[in-house]
User: Fold these one by one.
Assistant:
Number 1:
Amino acid sequence: MSSPLLAATGLVTQVGKAGLRAVDNVDIHLWAGEVLGIVGESGSGKTTLARTLLGQQQESAGEICLHQKRVSGVEPRRARAARRVIQYVHQDQAAALDPWWRIGNTLHETLRVSGVRNSDERKERIEQMLKAVGLHTGVLERYPHELSGGQIRRIGLARILSLRPEIVILDEPTAGLDLSVQANVLRLFKDMQAQFNLSYIMVSHDLSVVRLMCDRVAVMYLGKIVEVAPSQQLFESPAHPYTRSMLGAAPRVDPERQVQSSTLNGDPPSLMKTPDGCRFRTRCDHATDACSRHVPELETVSGEHSVACLRWRDLTSFNLTRSH
Ligand SMILES: Nc1ncnc2c1ncn2[C@@H]1O[C@H](COP(=O)(O)OP(=O)(O)OP(=O)(O)O)[C@@H](O)[C@H]1O
Ligand code: SF4
Ligand SMILES: [Mg+2]
């Protein structure tokens, strides 16, 4: 069997002075050519996981392998250098661009910092990428505030693609865009994926975008992956109560196909007060005493579908009987 392009095992990332575990013992892999979605409520650790995979944030434990070579356990500068083929499209693209710099200067600087010294080569790469993302070279003279949200996304992608990545992490790639612009931007991601042989990790709140774009989806809750499955399986037969609630709460999921679900109760607890046992138990309608005593590990449901819930077997059969 082939090996994943990127694989993390037992990944822990601690944040802030208190050393809270924003990513807590995560196993995740990405196959070449795949689009992997990461979903979960605000604060569940999606960006921290993305930044750790990227090497921008140092892991406290665990291992990351790229092309089957270990790229973790080294100081941040070397970690990032070893992972140059992984690039990140920031959650807030506008903030990632310097407001006082013309777009052309920012694009040149990105390439210069990454080691492309020859300005003709930079110019050629930039023009090639602008063309690929459907922008005219006239944008090079503009400042960020003179561009639309859709144009900013295109610039963000052109900038990253000029670095010739293999893996692109897209953090909330459609946040703040109108629906029609979203559709264009998503089509652009698909086109670029085919044209440049990319694999994507797509972090998003928007389940309809994830369903449309992703081959496989991982669901995070308070720093842990609670379910991971091929996209179709996750949306049609979710096994974790959190995933079910999330799908139940999502406005644009097809009601015909939806399994029995409740919507989410309240907000997640803070990372400072994570419940013992299963972290979801304070919001779970199916919690029992055992759920406060045991931490559920990911178990295989079938094929590439895994879930971390002590009661997934009971709940799956409960659903089958209820829906007939
Ligand atoms: N540098 C930091 N210092 C303290 N806490 C942090 C730091 N970075 C992240 N956190 C905390 O870690 C948790 C995970 O944050 P993260 O940004 O990864 O979540 P997220 O899933 O990306 O959320 P969102 O959907 O809002 O972008 C949050 O509770 C956040 O407050
Ligand atoms: S382990 Fe228990 S509390 Fe956690 S999701 Fe499953 S049923 Fe709910
Ligand atoms: Mg985030």
Number 2:
Amino acid sequence: MEKLIEGIHQFQSGVFGQQRALFQRLSEGQAPEAMFITCSDSRVVPSLMTQSGPGDLFMLRNAGNLVPPYGPLHGAESAAIEYAVMVLGVKDIIVCGHTHCGAMKAVLAPDSLARLPATRHWLTYAEATRQLMESHYQALPDAKRLETCVEENVLVQIENLRTHPAVLAGLSRGTLKLHAWVYDIASGDVLVFDAAAGQFVPIAELS
Ligand SMILES: [Zn+2]
């Protein structure tokens, strides 16, 4: 905790003073560039990797960057998505998975969750990912399997996003776009799903 408290002192005596006008403006409201859905993993720092600042990204984070499909049990995810699209009017939603994801490791090894009932329940929202991995990618070596699982899961969650009425409406109006990304922790690379090519490509190569 000491490190965090020291950080607050530094923030208040340094950064905040230098950007006082920005924070004053933000106190009047937010108009974020995009909604960013990613994993809770501490190694994923969206504002750092996109070099964005306060007010730029409307964030939704959970273990495995999962998006429960829309349904009668409106959870935190549904509310955040609805608010982002209907109230804030975000034009883009990014689902960003990442390499070495613990949640995806657990999807590939469900037995490891015997003592974690809440996690096991939560990861049922990645059940389509698990089934896809079981039916198509059993033969891959472990590291490649995890990499593929991360990518497939991002695409599964994009499909889940489409079940949310606000998202569907935005897509049909042409005012909303969905983006599937994977962040590589070791290299800093960001891969983006290129629908035309049917695969993830480095973001710089996206046509
Ligand atoms: Zn993760």
Number 3:
Amino acid sequence: MQDLDNLAKILLEKGKIATPKALRIIKEKNLLDKVLKLNEDLINEKVLERIFEKKIEIRREKERVLGEEYEVKLKIKNAEVKHVERKPSDFISYFNSRYFLIQQMLIKRVNPISISNIKKTRNDEISLIGMVYDVRTTASGNKIIELEDPTGKISCMITKNSENDLIREADNILKDGVIGIRGIFKNNYVFITELIRPNIPITKELNKLDVPISAVFISDIHVGSIDFLEHLFKKFVSWINSKEAEDVKYIFVAGDLVDGIGIYLTQDRDLTIKSGEKQYKYLVNLLREIPDNIKIVVQPGNHDIIGNLEPQNTLKETPLNNLPNIIFGTNPCWVSLDKLKILMYHGYSYDDLIRELPSIRHEGYRNPCLPMIEVLKRRHLAPIYGSSLAIPEQRDQLVIEEPPDIFHSGHLHTVGITNYKNILVINSGTFQARTKYQEMLGHIPHPGIFVKINLQTMDSKLINLN
Ligand SMILES: [Fe+2]
């Protein structure tokens, strides 16, 4: 059998140049004689496939041992996305569903009475669960919070003389959030003494897999943008094919796979590929180099061509469907690997959260886990209604009904990993260079850095391709 250098030399003598991958195929399938008879001078995988009219299987350069050896059951739970005309009553059932789902999380800890019963109770001390209808600061510095439940509405107050912790919490109350409070009812106001968020229970266990496999978390590839760093993405694909990644069985991609078209005015100027279909095709060619036994779970982000109403539908209708190893998720979606539950959400709501919450306003972009922790505390992926253009479904599918084991987002283009109450919180960076828009806002992205998690130990590793 010819070695690769020799093969390349023989081909070159006949005026033909073969790509490294094509060379390997020619060697493995013993195709030299046939290739020498071809008219083409440049021999690549596609030429071989076309000429021989069947997909040529490529043997991996190395034996994948770990990733192939262990079987893990993967299930995906996608959001239901229906496109029907909305009526005003849809919004009522949507907010009622949000209220009841979060009320269930709070009820044991709060022991509430309904708002309509507050005036009837003889107790001065009361507890209630309400959705924030309005929150404002008075001229004298007190915070007024209007809370409502399905029975009515009531004004609550956190006075400026309250304890510092309570005042800090009050500054971070958002409209449409569901919270529990304890307080004293006097003069038609509830004077709040304690504020209770649904949060993640302290009893949440740290789950792990029983087998030594790893997953890689990426997002925000932005194929088609002038700032797409193709060389870094190719490095990523080579890394996936390297010894260091032999235990990697899954790649999770949390949205913005392509840059899209018409996402903002003048985007046309910032695109190298000006058709959505072609952007996905380009990505498909890059992803083809990833071995089929590695499953790639993809969900859309606000740049993907699927509309940005959340929940967003899957990318099944795109050319990604031509790849055998893609698993299509909605945004948001839940993936389970045996007992391990992974919540994927692109993160479109985080911009508004960072702007609205004083506690994360300065650090939110630099430390992308901060807005993610805020949504976990509130048990809702887009707590400010309107920030993520939520579809008013019968059931609010952006409520975090159960605590995940891994919470994966993107969108902010910076990398972060942290453990919050036994949830591994991951924001996975980008493959796009700093855009003019980010420069204007002073944001510094982290391109080419991604996260690898050993799912048996839950140890995390940042891989820097720069
Ligand atoms: Fe993005």
